[in-house]
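Feature request, filed as a ticket because there's no other form

It would be nice if the structure record came with a short human-readable summary line next to the tokens. Right now we just get the raw output. Example of a typical job, pasted below so the devs can see what we mean:
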Amino acid sequence: MPLVYQQNINATTKIGVWNITENEEFFLKKVPLKREIHHWHKRLQHLAGRLLLKEMHPGFPLSLIKIADTKKPYLENEPYHFSISHCGNFAAVVVSTTHRVGVDVELLSPKIERLQQKFMNEEELPVLYRQCPMPVMQSLTLYWSVKESVFKWWSIGEVDFKKDIVLKSINGNPQQG
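Raw output as currently delivered:
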């Protein structure tokens, strides 16, 4: 089982990351596919996220997951708050029984440097260059991922990452990914 990372953040919240190396049949034996997904890799990512939810919380009611207008999956009247992310061959999940949560997983790509003006504001750039002890591409990816996680936690729909989510400081620890 390629569960590559799992941490109990506290007594009610867990986070996990799955490295997707299996084929679709592996996942379909363990979790159902509830909606039509045409692209094979998106389908694998979707299934891996659902299996990760089930692995982290065996009683998780997968069949009750609904999708909001904002594309955020949620449960009505259930004790679970959760967030799912996937990128490349990775799926990440955070689940809490007490608090809203958000998670994002990203692969490093030089493209992030071209996109920084869409999510970094004037206050954040100096902080990024002064405080982050890692290369710029990693730092920008970390900023993006934190903002995406906050967006998912916030779950209000349209958000301007540059104006509405401002990071005053960030402690990028390259050892924790």
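Something like this underneath would help us a lot:
Residues 3-96 form a domain with the Ribosomal Protein L22; Chain A fold (CATH 3.90.470.20).
The chain has five helices and six strands.
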